[in-house]
Amino acid sequence: MTSRPLSLQVVGNVDYIPVVPHADDVNISGSVFTSKSDNHSVILFEPPIKSGIVKFEVQAMYQLFGLGIAQDPAKFQRNEGPQVVGKDRMIFYICDGQIAFADEGIEGNAEFDKGNYVALELNMDSNPRTLSFFIDDEEQKNYITDIPESVSFWVFLFEINSSFKVTKFERLCEATALHGAGTIATSFQSKQQIIVEPPKVVVQQQKAQHIYYLEMQKYPTPYTAQIPKGLLVKDVKVKDDTFTLNNRNHSTILFDPLIRNGVFRFEVLNINSLWEVGIADESVKYGRKEFPDARGQDKIVEYYNVGWTRHIGDNILGNAEFNNGDRATQELNMDSNPRTLSFFVNDVEQPNYFTNIPAAVRAFLYVKGNSFKVLKFESLSAPVAVNGAGSHSWEWGKEWIEDE
Fold this sequence. Notes:
Radius of gyration: 23 Å
InterPro entries: B30.2/SPRY_sf
Helix content: under 10%
Largest sheet: 14 strands, mixed
Organism: Streblomastix strix
CATH topology of the largest domain: Jelly Rolls
CATH class of the largest domain: Mainly Beta
Distance between the termini: 30 Å
Protein name: SPRY domain-containing protein
Oligomer: single chain
């Protein structure tokens, strides 16, 4: 690594301006930022960083989901997540220790929680430019190189009462990150997504699948939602297949019947901030305010709205996001050998699918936003999923490693 000509910048504190998407959603008291609503808030901190060595540090005070940098120009609207600027234009350090950008999920850095100090250090004078991470002043294993020429820091408040405190925003005379033995560099530029038009054969396959689905025999299946509830409080209101949160609690909802055989499709409309869909082993039950992995990650498959899937091990990237207004579909084939789980977003089959599904499972939805609508719960005469060229199978019960 070489150095660029040193920038003539004043060393010391940086006067910053927080750009809050909507003033009604975030309370600012000095350097403490607290979410006042269930809307997501990505708070951008100006000025953009174009030169010098700059360190940005926050203390996680309550339920801080993550922070990162975004390539300029960047702008966030009310109730948007950081990926809205483009997954190839931002770097996201998530509270579980994962670094996410483009279609990468890099693991190995420490998790952070209430009380931890989380710092990002940009070295815009080195060649290549770098972004390093610190937890409680301890340099982390993974760092990113080839940072764009101009970037801005941001912090993501995911839910009501989430809060953090800005403890440092300063220019340094020299970098504190050493990038010594045991550290791993990943290039931001080499991981950027290349957007291409889908090949005609893929488009034709999608059209053929949709026509095939329309023409096949389908049998609507009556369902019952297992909504966790207390003695006095109901967290979820249900009306005409639409499920809406009544309060600020999150909820994991299982759906009966238990699926043991046949081909089933379960499709929902993400009306507002549906967080994830998935399946759970028949032994799994949920109480109020429990996450899908409350009984163990080995008993579920999760599909997050950002496009990641997870079982045991790494988050697997490559499937499409499902945002507000999108339809997310799970197709279980319990008659095939091995049994399979395939996903569709707006009728488009996704590349990652899952095999050796347990003999009996239930569908679940995890709600941390406002509402969703069940569109279909039906058995089919045959599967729609092809799982053909370009698809990748992942086996239930085994540890998933992203680089496989």
